[in-house]
Amino acid sequence: MTSKQKERLAPLIKSFFQSHPHAERIKADPVELPHRYTDPREIELVGWLAAALAYGRVDLFKAAVEKILALMEGRPYSYLARFDPVRERPRFKGIYYRLNSTDDLFCFIYMMSRVVQRFGSVGALFRSLYREEEEDLGPTLSRFIGIVSSIDSRPVYGKKGIPDGLRQLLSSPAQGSACKRMNLYLRWMVRPSDGIDFGLWREVPPGKLIIPLDTHIVRISRYLGLTRRKSPDWKMAKEITQSLKAFDPLDPLKYDFGLCHLGISGACPIERDREKCRACSLLDGCRRGRRAVGAIQGLPLPSITIS
Ligand code: SF4
């Protein structure tokens, strides 16, 4: 982002953040699931599960999470602390979600149980892996996923290895993936409590987070000039995060929920909509919006697809 762009966008993005009642959008967001719990250890576990499955339609992945939570009978921590794979396996029959088979989901829950039994909590493991000297949470996340992935999956699959449907739940920056769902989870755990995020892992500074790169963040970031990169990968996530640091270096992801829901809510639709752009408080800093209302001429921005 050029300094001219920063100057233009800074007051707009700050006023956008202050004027939007973001908490009203919680019901349409997977963060609603961990918000049902009060024990920090349960918020961590339900958050991890909800974020891991947060792809596709919200109502569909929430339904899959609800089925697993129902097995936990309102007490995820004690359920996982006493998890017995032999006893529990039949109870998962018929539970699956898109790319994740029943075995994949069962193995993921089994791995969560091993983390609880071995390290006490998800947060205890993640925080033990954090290194202050590292630039961002990418290396910590890679170590975390490395440890979880090393848990012996033979009790579930009967053989060594991680099938694709389980691997999809354990994405790592080490493979260059944007790790949208894990970065979303980390935002929930690390950002200060504000009615959306929980601020549970206070040892980890919010300035080390990397933005969860979903399809809405990719396109709106391009409209606002927060990134020039074409490929929606870890490097793009870092670039957008770096751009947002121009507006708040210590807590750049405070803008993530609002920008993402600008897209999810349809207030910033994929199809060009002159009236919606006219009503948008980001219009003066948005190339696409200014084209839509006829303020500037030019070619359309290239489209980007993110899975
Ligand atoms: S001005 Fe239009 S395109 Fe730009 S962010 Fe707002 S609604 Fe979206």
UniProtKB/TrEMBL annotation:
> Which GO molecular function terms does the record list?
catalytic activity
Write down the Pfam families for this protein, in alphabetical order. DUF2400 (PF09674)
State the coiled-coil residue ranges.
none
Q: Name one GO biological process term.
A: DNA repair
What superkingdom does the record give?
A: Bacteria
Enumerate the SUPFAM superfamilies for this protein: DNA-glycosylase
The record's section on NCBIfam families has:
TIGR02757 family protein
* This protein's name: TIGR02757 family protein
Signal peptide annotation: none
The UniProt entry, under Gene3D superfamilies, shows: Helix-hairpin-Helix base-excision DNA repair enzymes (C-terminal) (1.10.1670.10)
